[in-house]
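Trying the structure run again after the queue cleared.
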Amino acid sequence: MSLSRGIGNDDDLFIFLEKICKGRKKAQPTIPYQIEVADSGGEHAQIQVSGSGVKTAFIGVPARNVHSGIETISLKDVESTITLCSEFCKKVSRGSFK
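Done. Tokens:
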């Protein structure tokens, strides 16, 4: 799983997601991730543009043979992405992110 940093991604939201991945308590497992540098927006640029006031971030799941009949992803990456999104929703619903 990757967290994108750069064009179309809010820095504060990136830092918040990264903190979730790293975990704050020793007993809490960390979520494996890599940092992806977004320098041009790529094929999802129109989705990432925030306009006025909407914080956006791109969470990526690495894939092989993209746009083909044998596209392949790791189940561990999918599970990490689900865990991150779930933890993000819990924290935001409690008012942790401003």
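The longest strand covers residues 2-6. Worth checking whether this holds up in the mutant runs.
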